[in-house]
């Protein structure tokens, strides 16, 4: 007779010294793990709770801020650290993101700074336009031979001839160097510039009241475009003080263009929003418009998707943001709702999968463009069209400018309360290096939340956001109004002669008219 | 088994008509996303055919992984059938015209993309489940214990504990065979914690001791000075609950009293539900009480209405509690329902003395006062077969992790192989006698070891049953690792509290969570009503049939003298019967008159004799 009974050796069960790893056992038999569904669900619930518990998106404000509302903001397309912001009082400030502090304040314009944009070189040249009718070029990495000015800074922007700055350090070194030198007269002797000043040639009409509304730099050529109050778009070469080309009255109306943006891929394509509630596309080679769409209300801002450059998003006065496919302007591809104030600014994530909107209702919202979501905090809403996250603070006022940093980890917002704020793009993300175990457990948790996101309790927790009372009330009101509109439309269809009236979806209702 | 996804597109109708000159060019132009539908369905078919060749045990294991559940498909199929039925005849009266329009649109449109995606995912999941089974077979090198006979003359029952102790087993296993003579405080009960490291002994006359089974040392011991009816560990071996004369008390590892649970009065039996952190007690009053041991709250309290109850055991598959009652019924309980979930009459005319449920939740063994051990299939709630015990009714039952059934009856304990739950086997696996110490008070298998602990009037016996313990440990399952150190234990405590299940998740089907709810409550209720009506109608029809059925002309007994007389009696004109018949007819006529409204004036006849003079 053969008899064998279980006996486990000491070495397989306990570690010999405290420095050893503990022996791990795994039983793969499903009957050893009872109640699998319930336990996994509970884990998912805990994961959703933990995600909300760790949600702490506000990193901090940028120290030493503006003394008036922040009107515009620009991040560099090629460098991670420099950020410039322009205030309503006409000052432009250069910031260092790493230390979250101001490097330099420049008295750029005599009136509100209406637009800021970085050049596409690595030299750190940026342009500001103001309502005083001036465009100025600046440099946030000042060279040692700063006095010479014009060509040096501009040179960097030229395609193919990008030259590295001679003394490239952190922004702080420059600050220290410069602080000695700009004690007396900063406008003339500042190493930051202005490198160059551009103004429109004086014309008979309206020279005095001329102002710039928007500026954008070309993605690859040394060229920038401005929109000004003479209802014209001007293209500029940085080396010339007069515009290269001017387009006036191009889009069937002489309404002012408020925003214009170069397409990242098509080198001659500009999209714009204008005061006549229109958004349009324009080819700079042909001196004629491609197409234009009139929406129900005015659009405040427009940005191209950096990864899918045929998509752009506009922020509208009707509290919504819309994405459009540039090939098909008669219908938006997506409607992004939730704000209870006009959308003042939008900013794409460099990944092109989400964008942030800043609104007059004092909140920021982040929207997914795609349904697939990455991390647990993406679950806020699995569907597109609803914000996956809402950021607000007690002190933040109306948000005028927003931008993602180019590592897509942070969001910058500038608001009426003179502050620039830095937020995490994913509110519960841990900043810094993760250990392998941390990373694995985070991934497991987010996968769990995704798996059970359709269950009411998990969904409720993952979606829950504290919003200001005002926003909450307005949202409820908006829901009521929407329900009323829906009911009315239904009644109209029901009680009119069959076949005469039919339902139109929301996307179909948006566009008032298209102009070619 | 798996086909590699081919890069060339599947031949379509168009390609067949005009074969392209350069096939490479075509491949370059066509975008193929993964495998095509034909390839997928072929893969799925081959996987399914492979599945059908597996053994039933393997198949259920694959299905458990495939569905991500505990693998009891019988529960989910019912739910799915109802869902389909709901979906087919949906109640559209509540929908707005827009919703109705969208619904019709959706109905009319088939979504081939979605279908293909579903097919791909399902195929992948099935293949992964099969791979996981293979991985389990390959990776789990631990083999369980066993007794193997070498010729036909040998029987496994011939292996006695003395033989095992003296030479048949290794030294470190043989030390598990011992007897503790503790007659003074007997009878004794013994319980193990979830890891099988600690055991708690509980003498009826108030002796409680905790033994560390690894060191064979006494961890703590104390005398209560009053009756101790039952003792069990809570989440780990550091805390235990003792059912004493009046209340339940909770003690820590050093025997210090931590809590007195006032709500639990005169408790006879206790069970701890480890995943829900619930201590369930039943006692003299027949109240089933659930106490949350992490928050200290009394979760629920159910009146069983079936009198004092000694037998309580949890179903490890779904955490439902099984109570055995003195009237021979077994009732199933969950904290969320104040009524029992299921009531089964298991032993007619005798009390249920013990209950045990196997780990997969499929089989239940009940022992009754009729000296029977009945095996029940919990999928059907039907008895499959039964065993008879000799030398006393089965007082205690347990099913080990591997499915070995242990029965304590009289002064014997007998053990049956795992097959004994499925089919009736003729021969037992092992037996053990504790002469003069009967009846057995408790019998429990030690988890993760081939050991069984028996409590009886003489004290405690620990015996070795080869093949009864699960060979594979799992460090990820909290508190089941017998070798965990204090740091691991602390971490497990936090983690298992984070994963504590809510008490209302306990249901007969543990996989309902996260599955699709039956959509329409009204339809579900209607369905239940229909079922009840159907059952009623069937019963009524049966009754009717029984009534209409002609009485069989049975020849036997016809000539019995009493019956003959009775038949004769029918023809005899009886005076009393006639009187009664007339009275009845009078009554009838009077009633008819009253109904016609003709009762005026007839009061004289109706009035009692004493009152007639007043008319």
TrEMBL record, chain A:
For this record, an example GO cellular component is:
ribonucleoprotein complex
Q: Where is this region: Disordered?
A: 1-38, 149-200, 479-516
In residue terms, where are the WD repeats? 63-105, 336-377, 392-433
**PROSITE patterns in UniProt:** WD_REPEATS_1, WD_REPEATS_2, WD_REPEATS_REGION
From the Swiss-Prot or TrEMBL record, state where the protein is found.
Nucleus, Nucleolus
Pfam (any one): Sof1
Q: InterPro entries this protein is in?
A: Sof1, WD40/YVTN_repeat-like_dom_sf, WD40_PAC1, WD40_repeat_CS, WD40_repeat_dom_sf, WD40_rpt, WD_repeat_DCAF13/WDSOF1
Biased composition (Basic and acidic residues) is annotated at 149-160, 503-516
Q: Which UniProt keywords apply?
A: Nucleus, Repeat, Ribonucleoprotein, WD repeat
- Comp. bias (Basic residues): 161-178
Q: Where is the composition biased (Low complexity)?
A: 7-19
Task: Domain (Sof1-like protein): give its ranges.
Answer: 425-509
Could you tell me which SUPFAM superfamilies the record lists for this protein?
WD40 repeat-like
Mainly localized where? nucleus
Give the family from UniProt. Belongs to the WD repeat DCAF13/WDSOF1 family.
Provide the protein name: DDB1- and CUL4-associated factor 13
The organism of origin for this protein = Cyclotella cryptica
UniProtKB/TrEMBL annotation, chain B:
Q: Which UniProt keywords apply?
A: Nucleus, Repeat, rRNA processing, WD repeat
Domain of life the protein comes from: Eukaryota
Which spans does this entry mark as compositional bias, Polar residues?
23-33, 49-61
Q: Which InterPro entries match?
A: BING4_C_dom, WD40/YVTN_repeat-like_dom_sf, WD40_repeat_CS, WD40_repeat_dom_sf, WD40_rpt, WDR46/Utp7
Compositionally biased intervals (Basic residues): 549-570
What protein does this entry describe?
Answer: BING4 C-terminal domain-containing protein
Q: Where are the WD repeats?
A: 345-386
Subcellular location, record wording: Nucleus, Nucleolus
Q: What is the lineage of its organism?
A: Eukaryota, Sar, Stramenopiles, Ochrophyta, Bacillariophyta
Extent of Basic and acidic residues compositional bias: 83-93, 534-548, 571-599
Write down the species.
Cyclotella cryptica
